[in-house]
Amino acid sequence: MDRSTLIAEIFRKQSFLCVGLDTELAKLPEHLRSQPDAILAFNKAIIDATRDLCVAYKPNLAFYEALGPEGWSIFHQTVQYIGKEHLIIADAKRGDIGNTSRMYAEAFFQKMDCDAITVAPYMGEDSVSPFFGFPGKWVILLALTSNKGSVDFQRQPQNASGEELFEVVLRRAQEWGTPENLMYVVGATHPEAFRQVRRIAPDHFLLVPGIGAQGGSLAAICEHGMNADCGMLVSASRSIQYASAGADFAEAARAEALKIQTAMAAILKRLV
Amino acid sequence: MDRSTLIAEIFRKQSFLCVGLDTELAKLPEHLRSQPDAILAFNKAIIDATRDLCVAYKPNLAFYEALGPEGWSIFHQTVQYIGKEHLIIADAKRGDIGNTSRMYAEAFFQKMDCDAITVAPYMGEDSVSPFFGFPGKWVILLALTSNKGSVDFQRQPQNASGEELFEVVLRRAQEWGTPENLMYVVGATHPEAFRQVRRIAPDHFLLVPGIGAQGGSLAAICEHGMNADCGMLVSASRSIQYASAGADFAEAARAEALKIQTAMAAILKRLV
């Protein structure tokens, strides 16, 4: 999915919600847990309940890999079930030496039909660049993550410029990709940092995890994070997927997604 | 495999070689390429040809993921074929928020029976710590990688200490793991940096890629990198796996591994 289609979808649906699919057997409603295809059945129900309310889905690979070899097949079937009308983000946080990153790009863009992949920047340019050059596909580079450990290295000031490491990542990566094929991960748990991010990267889309279970506020991040194209995909995973542990899990997931989408629509109205 | 067993194996085999299994269909000898189980058959032949010459195997997940869902099954069958007498390193470069890293740990240590996993440090403590606490299992944290892009962020001086980022990673991670469950990746393409590494981490094992196809020198890295327990696992992948593109690929792989093991034996003799 290219940038202009994504922007059009955001304004059409009045939503910049990305629904995470971090599906864990132990957290499924009891009536599903014993089914042979429990994870896939749960994913399909969550997808059906939220399709019109979100523009992106983001399965996190860890949850599928934890299922063993079968997990990749469930992941792929989930991607196929989503179809072509949403941006599908493989939350995989990959990154390796050049010839190896190229293999990851083929895995996620070609074999698995994903639109985007999250990539870790630690190994530098030649670990990130092989992911570019697939038309309509996106690199979503970790810049400032939502977790507590993000302060350990990402927020450390660098000698050369006095900038924090994540600012250097934002700046350097703009030499490698463009707003048409590069987004950044910026966690909602650092609302004050969005102004810094937009100073360096005014046009790029930001993928923002950390609202919901991790406690970040939608209003706070939108205040300084949005641009004229919206420029944000805000993801929520656990708060939607596990809104109810009962038989009504899909309705509860829809209600939670609708709450977020309604807030997003109000924010988008102020934008235009 | 625990630390004392690993050290014993190194001195028994007179080898600290780790054979990478970065298997790519397009690079296989032609007579194998059309077989239905080509990748697995190739891996088995490489393993059989090198078992007595190495102490570790390191399949890189990218090459298996690029095969689609079936790739994880080939990866798992490869791990099972290696058996219990070698350290099996999943070169996966994972790392995510805490609850997600825990899923990756379960995937690689429990479902996939690996002994070690490479982990990227960018997301900090809570992205790394969930990989600890599995008895006999190892985190191998990226510190200074072998690729060109390693200079982009890893070698940047940090304000607080004047240390380079990889030195801060080495130092901070010692608060999270011990020499019994934590190794570091340090690329052979930075031979001059091994002195810096050993100043900060004298006891930890180092996993050293970058000899062979990437051009690093075994003698140069051993001079400053070894400690009294050897303390190094030096990996070679392409130079062994693809030593010959013909029907004699396994013999050629063995000859290449033997050349490295012979050099290692000479270096180990000087150590004791």
Structure commentary:
2 copies of one chain form a homodimer. Chain A is of the alpha/beta class and 272 residues long. The first copy, chain A, has a single domain (3-249, 257-271), classed as Aldolase class I (TIM Barrel, Alpha-Beta Barrel). Chain A contains 12 helices and 8 strands. An 8-stranded parallel beta barrel of chain A has the order 1-2-3-4-5-6-7-8, surrounded by 6 helices. In chain A, strand 5 (138-144), helix 8 (165-173) and strand 6 (182-186) form a beta-alpha-beta unit. Chain A starts with a helix and ends with a helix. At the A-B interface, helix 4, helix 5, strand 3, helix 6 and helix 7 of A face helix 4, helix 5, strand 3, helix 6 and helix 7 of B.
CATH homologous superfamily name of chain A?
Answer: Aldolase class I
Total of helices of chain A: 12
CATH class of chain A: Alpha Beta
Specify the structural class of chain A: alpha/beta
Low-pLDDT parts of chain A are none
Largest beta-sheet details of chain A: 8 strands, parallel, barrel
At the third CATH level, what is the topology name of chain A?
A: TIM Barrel
Write out the strand line-up for the largest beta sheet of chain A, numbering strands in chain order: 1-2-3-4-5-6-7-8
